[in-house]
């Protein structure tokens, strides 16, 4: 293969067999995709994403939500919100989907070793954080306490419910879940995710926080974290913009001076603090 | 960051030549019909050595002199070498870059008048072939094509395989008449599409096989401001040959400087003679005349100024006039943004994925699930101008504007980027909300 052809592969998907589709919520599904050689170039870091292509329909940037130590599969959690995402979650196991990537910079897990880890997620924002949670549990001795704060709109929109319960039973781990609207049968917290901070047992001086969710939620969470005394340099966020190429060519994912595809999607808070409260940026 | 929906189709713009007319395949067929057997253009590498003996005196850096007849011979030589020569022609009452076969195809005696929202071609008494400034179209049409197929794929029983994954154009092109600002634009796109972790093979293959014949300006349009940006009118590097057209009492001639060994080889093949001191003085005076420009853009501290003025009332004033038509981005020689289209045939077993120019002025450009980020014209104009004049510097180490003035000429609402920056600066810095 010539150098030019090797380069071109970044824009051309590989055909990967869809192994399993699991329904998480009424509109959200987790897809497991087989991969041939996960130990080499397409091993991924927690927080990275892939471009998933449905034959003839469209392509989407989707965060990897699976276990980074499993080298035989890539796992994605997809919410069906439009034509391409609907087509993606409707694929039958055994069919092939196109996969490009992984792309981008993920969570700073190496820098977080030796620290407490605070995970704050809103809605589907838990998906790109799940590989980081797996990373902590697999290297448990490397990390301090793990605190997971998770908010969703309603109980039926909570992702990974069984895993959340299992994580909560682990030592040195606190899992707090809240919903915007509880309804009958919900006995947990009600309110936006920032209301969970008063229940969280945090040691701000030795913590690294990783946040993913709607921008408005991330703005208020970063504020809360700083009020609790977390250092600005220990806060990381995963950002989202429209994306076509994931390689820095299409221009769509620009966020101020950043390209989310190649500079992100995970950014240190200090790098984007000035941008977070800018409307229509 | 988990799900993002596909954007709908962006409006299609008409500034680029039709795909059939300029597709590499069509061009290859046209060329092969014209010349039965032809040698391949040499290797495609920009600095490839030419075999021919170097008779031209490069050691002394003495520029050469050629006549319009020798330019004719130069074009014929390039065509004979297998190049498709793209140069300025008159089409639809404007200068457009199209395949040229001879000097007669070039716009002899045509000049242009440009003002905000106004472009007119005018016949002049001067027989100059390059007496115009710039048309709407830029060289990105040929290097970063408006439409390109990324790949095709075929599906059988739920499995698919990729077909025709070949980004290499069928023919190498010689670009004739590249101005200083346009060379700066090509350098800017080089940085975006070739200079980072990933390399765009569609742009890269076209760029590497292109032979560049630059032409220095001898006058500026009213919309030009390359002097402010520092991108012109003098061409310093990035060319194979550099022409300066002179028409005076000493006749119609071109001072030619080679920039590469390939350029030296070409000059030798058209029997170029050394230029005289008087010719070189005439080049300097032509450049001095081109440097007389009406428009200025004060770039000092511009990046910080624009970052600080995210909320400035001038944005509202601009957006009251901006039609979000995307003309500025289509005609801009550095704008590189693209979108993709997926399509299948009627059986659903054959799929193609195509890339097309896109514009940050469309609503769909910033669409993510739940709606567009930049819904207002104000936000979209601000994104475009702030990217050109501020963020580009952080991203790629230079301004994203080369001062060609196309966005001024081709804006139907006559919005002038230099004027808007001036108005905003005079309005003063307003504290960010």
Extended strand count of chain B: 16
Structural class of chain B: alpha+beta
CATH-defined fold name of the largest domain in chain A: Rossmann fold
Identify the overall geometry of chain B.
Answer: globular
Describe this entry's structure for a reader:
The complex is a heterodimer of chains A (281) and B (433). The longest helix of chain A has 13 residues, at 126-138. A 7-stranded mixed β-sheet of chain A has the order 10-9-8-7-11-12-15, with helices on both faces. A 6-stranded antiparallel β-sheet of chain A has the order 4-3-6-1-2-5. Chain A is an alpha/beta fold. The relative contact order of chain A is 0.13. In chain A, α6 (215-227) links the parallel β11 (207-212) and β12. Chain A folds into 2 domains: 3-103, Elongation Factor Tu (Ef-tu), domain 3; 109-238, 3-Layer(aba) Sandwich (Rossmann fold), CATH 3.40.50.80. Chain A has 8 helices and 15 strands. Chain A is 22% helix and 31% strand. Chain B is α+β, with helices and mostly antiparallel strands and 433 residues long. Chain B folds into 2 domains: 20-36 and 44-146 and 167-290, Aspartate Aminotransferase, domain 2; 302-338 and 358-427. Chain B has 15 helices and 16 strands. Chain B has helices spanning 19-22, 24-34, 68-80, 140-143, 180-194, 201-209, 226-229, 261-269, 277-290, 302-308, 313-321, 327-331, 377-396, 406-409, 417-427, and strands spanning 64-66, 84-91, 94-99, 110-115, 118-123, 147-156, 159-163, 173-178, 211-216, 241-248, 251-258, 273-274, 338-344, 350-357, 367-368, 371-372. Chain B has an 8-stranded mixed β-sheet, sandwiched between helices. In chain B, strands 7-6-14-13 form a 4-stranded antiparallel β-sheet, with no helix packed on it. Chain B has a two-stranded antiparallel ribbon with strand order 4-5. In chain B, α10 (302-308) runs antiparallel to α13 (377-396), α11 (313-321) crosses α13 and α11 runs antiparallel to α15 (417-427). Chain B is globular, with a radius of gyration of 23 Å. The relative contact order of chain B is 0.16. The chains are: A alpha/beta (281), B alpha+beta (433). The interface between A and B is large, with 66 and 60 residues.
């Amino acid at each position: 293969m010539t150098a030019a052809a090797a380069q071109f592969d970044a824009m051309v998907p590989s055909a990967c067999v869809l192994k399993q589709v699991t329904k998480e919520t009424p509109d959200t599904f987790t897809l497991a995709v087989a991969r041939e050689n996960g130990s080499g170039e397409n091993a991924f870091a927690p927080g990275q994403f892939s471009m998933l292509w449905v034959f003839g329909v469209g392509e989407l940037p989707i965060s990897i939500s699976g276990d980074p130590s499993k080298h035989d599969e890539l796992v994605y959690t997809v919410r069906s919100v439009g034509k391409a995402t609907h087509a993606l979650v409707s694929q039958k196991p055994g069919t092939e989907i196109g996969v490009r990537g992984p792309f981008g910079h993920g969570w700073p897990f190496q820098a977080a070793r030796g620290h407490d880890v605070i995970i704050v997620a809103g809605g589907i924002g838990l998906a790109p954080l799940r590989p980081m949670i797996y990373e902590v549990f697999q290297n448990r001795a490397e990390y301090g306490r793990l605190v997971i704060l998770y908010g969703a709109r309603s109980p039926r929109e909570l992702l990974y419910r069984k895993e959340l319960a299992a994580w909560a039973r682990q030592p040195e781990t606190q899992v707090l879940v809240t919903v915007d609207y509880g309804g009958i049968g919900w006995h947990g917290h009600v309110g936006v995710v920032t209301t969970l901070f008063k229940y969280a047992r945090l040691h701000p001086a030795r913590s690294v926080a990783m946040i993913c969710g709607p921008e408005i939620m991330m703005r208020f969470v970063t504020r809360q974290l700083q009020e609790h005394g977390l250092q600005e340099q220990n806060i990381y966020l995963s950002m989202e913009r429209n994306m076509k190429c994931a390689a820095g060519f299409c221009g769509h994912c620009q966020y101020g001076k950043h390209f989310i595809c190649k500079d992100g999607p995970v950014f240190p808070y200090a790098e984007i603090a000035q941008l977070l409260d800018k409307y229509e940026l | 960051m988990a799900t993002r929906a596909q954007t709908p189709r962006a409006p299609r713009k008409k500034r680029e030549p039709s795909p059939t007319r300029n597709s590499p395949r069509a061009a290859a067929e046209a060329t092969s019909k014209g010349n039965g057997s032809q040698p391949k253009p040499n290797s495609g590498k920009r600095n490839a050595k030419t075999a021919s003996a170097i008779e031209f005196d490069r050691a002394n850096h003495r520029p050469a002199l050629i006549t319009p007849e020798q330019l004719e011979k130069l074009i014929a030589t390039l065509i004979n070498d297998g190049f498709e020569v793209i140069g300025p022609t008159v089409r639809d009452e404007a200068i457009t870059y199209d395949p040229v076969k001879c000097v007669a195809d070039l716009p002899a005696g045509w000049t242009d008048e440009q003002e905000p929202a106004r472009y007119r071609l005018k016949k002049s008494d001067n027989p100059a072939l390059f007496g115009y400034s710039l048309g709407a179209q830029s060289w990105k049409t040929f290097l970063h094509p408006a439409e390109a197929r990324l790949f095709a794929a075929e599906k059988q029983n739920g499995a698919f395989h990729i077909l025709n994954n070949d980004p290499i154009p069928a023919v190498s092109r010689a670009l004739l008449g590249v101005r200083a600002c346009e060379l700066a634009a090509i350098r800017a796109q080089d940085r975006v599409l070739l200079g980072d972790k990933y390399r765009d093979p569609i742009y890269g293959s076209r760029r590497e096989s292109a032979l560049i014949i630059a032409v220095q300006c001898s006058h500026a349009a009213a919309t030009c401001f390359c002097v402010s940006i520092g991108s012109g009118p003098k061409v310093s590097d990035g060319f194979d040959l550099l022409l300066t057209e002179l028409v005076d009492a000493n006749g119609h001639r071109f001072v030619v400087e080679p920039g590469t060994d390939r350029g030296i080889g070409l000059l030798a093949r058209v029997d170029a003679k050394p230029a005289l001191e008087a010719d070189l003085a005439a080049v300097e005076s032509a450049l001095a005349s081109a440097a007389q420009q009406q428009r200025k853009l004060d770039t000092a501290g511009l990046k910080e100024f624009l970052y600080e003025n995210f909320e400035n009332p001038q944005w509202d004033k601009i957006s009251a006039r901006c039609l979000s038509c995307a003309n500025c981005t289509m005609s801009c020689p550095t704008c590189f943004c693209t979108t993709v289209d997926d399509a299948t045939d009627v059986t659903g077993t054959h799929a193609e994925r195509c890339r097309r120019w896109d514009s940050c002025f469309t609503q769909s450009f910033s669409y993510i699930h739940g709606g567009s980020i930049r819904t207002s014209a104000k936000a979209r104009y601000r994104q475009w101008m702030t990217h050109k004049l501020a963020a580009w510097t952080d991203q790629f180490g230079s301004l994203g504007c080369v001062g060609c003035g196309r966005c001024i000429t081709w804006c139907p609402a006559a919005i002038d980027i230099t004027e808007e920056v001036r108005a905003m600066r005079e309005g003063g810095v307003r504290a960010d909300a």
